[in-house]
Design brief:
This protein is an alpha/beta fold and 183 residues long. It contains 6 helices and 5 strands; from the N terminus they run βββαβαβαααα. The protein has a 5-stranded mixed sheet with strand order 3-2-1-4-5. Helix 2 (81-101) links the parallel strand 4 (66-72) and strand 5 (106-108). Helix 1 (47-61) packs parallel to helix 2, helix 3 (110-121) crosses helix 4 (133-144) and helix 3 runs parallel beside helix 6 (169-182). The longest helix is centred in the middle third of the chain and has 21 residues, at 81-101. The model has no long low-confidence stretch (mean pLDDT 88).
Length: 183
């Protein structure tokens, strides 16, 4: 997909308890955050409440004219309640966005978000250690050149999902900014 100045992107960090969403604007200076949300959407066993909340927030998000969207991919762990609930919530989100926009998502593996964070911050990640949520916030601040302190971990993961999926060249630019700041 060829993006142009002013295009909007949606990033999602799906969750059954907390849903992170971010609208990102493509600019010549790099990605900029338009709006983020962290929505507490439900608890196990409250399917009706979860469905109402999810539909309401997706209806609000779909008022933005985004041209593409990406979501952190939920885990595929058989027989795990949490993983199953994440797939349930993700399916509702996908169906709602498709109903509004006719767009399917790009999937971003959680490991990819961690790898991009490590690369931006010059940290060596391994299969035994990867950057935590607080470092993802630091990386998104470098990517957007905006403070991330007021955003939740879920919102920062949503920002990173959109940028990782649609603007991968921005990862190296953020790394260069980090090197300049720390040298």
């Amino acid at each position: 997909m060829k993006l142009k100045e002013g295009d909007l992107l949606l990033g999602i960090d799906p969750g059954y308890s907390n849903l992170g969403l971010a609208i990102i604007k493509v600019t010549d200076e790099g990605p900029r955050v338009v709006k983020t949300w962290c929505v507490t959407i439900g608890k196990r066993g409250d399917t009706k409440g979860f469905l109402k909340t999810t539909q309401r927030i997706i209806d609000e998000v779909c008022n933005y004219e985004f041209v593409g969207w990406a979501t952190e991919a939920p885990p595929t762990v058989p027989n795990r309640v949490t993983a199953n609930l994440l797939w349930y919530s993700t399916g509702l989100i996908w169906a709602s966005i498709f109903r509004h926009k006719g767009l399917l998502p790009k999937l971003v593996a959680p490991a990819r978000i961690k790898a991009h964070t490590a690369r931006i911050l010059g940290i060596k990640a391994s299969k035994h250690w990867s950057p935590g949520k607080e470092l993802v916030g630091q990386a998104t601040a470098l990517l957007t050149e905006e403070p991330s302190d007021s955003r939740t971990n879920h919102e920062n993961d949503a920002v990173m999902s959109a940028i990782a999926a649609f603007l991968p060249k921005e990862i190296n630019k953020a790394k260069e900014r980090w090197v300049k700041q720390t040298s």
